[in-house]
C-alpha cells in the first residue's frame, strides 16, 4: 500500500524545517529611497547575451532597454524604439529609434548598437545559452552554427536611427520577442575595451532606467537611477537592491522583519498561514510557465519510454498543486500551459481522467515490461533539483508517490547556479527539475526547448526527427490555424515520449510591502522598478 500523502511532510522536515510564525511582527520602514527587492537567485551573469534565468531577467530589465519593453501591467510599450512598421508579407520590420536615447556614459543609442548586439549574441564564440530564441531572424541559425558570417544576419542600420530586421518566415510573436533579454543591446565600445569583463561595476554602461552601482555575490546587486535615461524624470525609486532569496522560509522571515520590500516567490506549503498573517500583502496572479522533470534520454533505463511513462503516471499532480504548493500552481499534463496566443487546448499526456489506482496499475505494468518490479530489478532514481523549500517539498512528495511502485529515490540538490550550469554543460543525471517561464505567449516558446541540437535548454538531449520537422513546418507557415495544428501535433509527440515529464503550471506569487506601490500581477510577471514607487 502506498504511504499516506501526509507522510511526505515528515520527509520534507528531515531535509529542512520550515515554519510560519503565528503573529505578524511590526515591519521596519526600511532605508528611504532604497527598494530592497527579493530575487529568485543570484545571477550567473549580467551579460544579457549569456543570461538565461528569470532572476537575471528582472535585473537586466532595470539595467537595459530593448527596442520594446514592458510596463508594470505586462503590456508591450515602446522602448529604445519610438515607432515601427511591418511589411505587407510580415517579413520585414523597420524600427525608428528615439532621438533622446542615450547610454549611461552619454553616448547616443544607435541602430548600429543593435546590429552589433544581435550579431554578438548569435556569433558562435559568444556561446549564448539562449541564441536559438532569435532563430526567426534571417540566417540566424546559420550564423549561430558558424555556417555564415555575422554580417549576413537579417539586421541592418541604414542610418543611426533606423533599424531593419528581416525574418526567415512569419513570426507572429516578434514584437514580444524584442522585449526579451536576448534582444537587449550592449555598449559596443565597452565590450571592445573590456571583453567579458564589461559587466563589472564601474565598467558596465547601460541604456535602461538604472546603472550598476555595486555587486556583492550572494548578498545583493545594487542599482542607481540613470540620469541619462530618456524618461529619468518619471523614475520614482532612486536605488534598488536585488537580494537573492532562494531559501523561501528565511526570505519570509526577512520580509516580516522589514529587511526586504518584496518577494518574487513564496513557500507553497505555507500559503494558508501567509495569507492569514500578511493579508492582501500576499499577491497571486497569472503566469505562463511550467515545471517539469527532465529525463536523461541518453541514459538507461530513462532512455526507455515505458519507464518515463510509468514515472509520470504515478505522480499525483493535484496533490502537488494543492497540498505542496498551496494552490499557487496548477496540475500540468502538457508542456504548454493554457491561454497561449495562436494556439488551442494543448495535447495532454495520459493520467488526468483515470482514477489514481488505475494509473498506478498501468505504471506497474509498464515497469514490469521494462524489467522492473516484483520478480525483476528494483528501479533506483536520482532526482536532482535546485534548492528552494518548494522544490525540496515537491521532490520529497514525488519520491513518496514512486515508493508505492517500489522505486527508490535519492536526492542531489545544489544552488540554482550550479544546478542549471550542470544541466546546460551536459552533466550526468537521471531526472532533473527544470522550469520555464515563457518569454512570449506563443507555444513555440515552449516547444523549441526540446528541438534537437538546442543543448543549452534541452537537458537530456532528446531528439526526434518527426518532432523537429513539425517545428520547421510551423516556422514557415503563415496561416495561424495551420501553424497551431502543426505545433499541436509536435506537442503530442512530446506527450507520447515524455522526455520532459510535466508536473505543474505556474501562477505568480509575491509578498508586497505596504510601502511599495505600482505592483500589478500580470501574465508576463513583469514589474520594472521604473514604474514602482516607495513611501518615504
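-> sequence recovered:
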Amino acid at each position: 500500500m502506498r504511504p499516506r500523502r501526509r507522510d511526505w511532510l515528515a520527509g520534507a522536515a528531515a531535509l529542512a524545517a520550515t515554519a510560519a510564525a503565528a503573529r505578524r511582527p511590526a515591519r521596519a520602514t526600511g532605508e528611504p529611497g532604497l527598494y530592497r527587492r527579493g530575487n529568485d537567485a543570484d545571477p550567473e551573469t549580467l551579460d544579457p547575451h549569456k543570461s538565461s534565468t528569470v532572476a537575471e531577467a528582472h535585473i537586466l530589465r532595470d539595467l537595459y532597454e530593448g527596442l520594446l519593453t514592458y510596463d508594470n501591467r505586462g503590456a508591450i510599450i515602446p522602448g529604445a524604439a519610438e515607432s515601427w512598421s511591418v511589411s505587407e508579407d510580415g517579413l520585414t520590420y523597420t524600427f525608428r529609434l528615439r532621438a533622446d536615447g542615450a547610454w549611461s556614459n552619454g553616448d547616443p543609442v544607435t541602430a548600429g548598437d543593435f546590429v552589433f548586439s544581435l550579431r554578438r549574441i548569435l556569433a558562435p564564440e559568444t556561446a549564448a545559452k539562449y541564441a536559438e530564441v532569435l532563430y526567426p531572424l534571417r540566417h540566424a541559425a546559420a550564423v549561430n552554427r558558424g555556417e555564415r558570417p555575422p554580417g549576413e544576419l537579417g539586421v541592418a542600420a541604414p542610418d543611426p536611427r533606423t533599424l531593419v530586421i528581416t525574418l526567415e518566415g512569419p513570426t507572429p510573436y516578434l514584437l514580444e520577442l524584442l522585449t526579451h533579454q536576448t534582444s537587449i543591446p550592449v555598449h559596443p565600445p565597452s565590450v571592445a575595451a573590456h571583453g567579458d569583463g564589461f559587466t563589472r561595476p564601474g565598467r558596465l554602461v547601460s541604456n535602461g532606467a538604472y546603472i550598476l552601482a555595486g555587486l556583492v555575490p550572494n548578498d545583493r546587486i545594487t542599482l542607481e537611477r540613470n540620469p541619462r535615461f530618456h524618461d529619468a524624470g518619471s523614475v520614482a525609486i532612486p536605488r534598488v537592491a536585488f537580494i537573492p532569496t532562494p531559501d523561501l522560509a528565511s526570505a519570509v522571515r526577512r520580509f516580516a522583519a522589514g529587511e526586504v520590500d518584496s518577494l518574487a516567490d513564496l513557500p507553497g506549503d505555507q500559503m494558508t498561514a501567509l495569507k492569514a498573517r500578511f493579508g492582501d500583502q500576499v499577491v497571486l496572479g497569472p503566469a505562463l510557465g511550467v515545471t517539469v522533470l527532465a529525463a536523461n534520454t541518453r541514459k538507461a533505463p530513462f532512455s526507455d519510454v515505458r519507464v518515463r511513462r510509468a514515472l509520470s503516471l504515478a505522480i499525483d499532480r493535484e496533490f502537488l498543486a494543492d497540498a505542496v504548493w498551496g494552490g499557487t500552481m496548477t496540475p500540468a499534463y502538457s508542456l504548454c500551459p493554457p491561454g497561449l496566443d495562436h494556439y488551442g487546448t494543448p495535447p495532454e499526456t495520459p493520467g488526468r481522467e483515470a482514477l489514481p489506482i488505475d494509473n498506478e496499475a498501468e505504471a506497474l505494468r509498464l515497469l514490469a515490461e521494462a524489467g522492473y518490479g516484483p520478480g525483476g530489478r528494483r528501479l533506483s532514481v536520482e532526482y536532482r533539483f535546485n534548492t528552494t523549500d518548494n522544490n525540496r517539498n515537491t521532490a520529497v512528495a514525488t519520491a513518496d508517490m514512486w515508493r508505492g511502485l517500489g522505486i527508490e529515490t535519492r536526492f542531489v540538490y545544489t544552488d540554482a547556479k550550479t544546478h542549471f550550469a550542470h544541466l546546460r554543460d551536459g552533466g550526468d543525471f537521471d531526472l532533473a527539475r527544470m522550469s520555464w517561464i515563457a518569454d512570449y505567449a506563443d507555444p513555440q516558446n515552449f516547444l523549441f526547448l526540446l528541438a534537437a541540437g538546442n543543448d543549452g535548454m534541452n537537458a537530456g538531449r532528446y531528439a526526434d526527427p518527426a518532432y523537429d520537422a513539425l517545428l520547421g513546418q510551423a516556422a514557415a507557415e503563415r496561416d495561424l490555424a495551420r501553424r497551431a495544428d502543426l505545433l499541436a501535433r509536435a506537442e503530442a509527440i512530446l506527450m507520447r515520449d515524455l522526455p520532459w515529464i510535466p508536473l505543474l503550471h505556474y501562477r505568480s506569487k509575491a509578498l508586497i510591502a505596504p510601502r511599495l506601490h505600482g505592483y500589478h500581477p500580470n501574465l508576463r510577471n513583469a514589474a520594472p522598478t521604473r514604474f514602482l514607487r516607495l513611501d518615504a
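The domain at 34-251+513-534 is CATH 3.40.190.10 (D-Maltodextrin-Binding Protein; domain 2).
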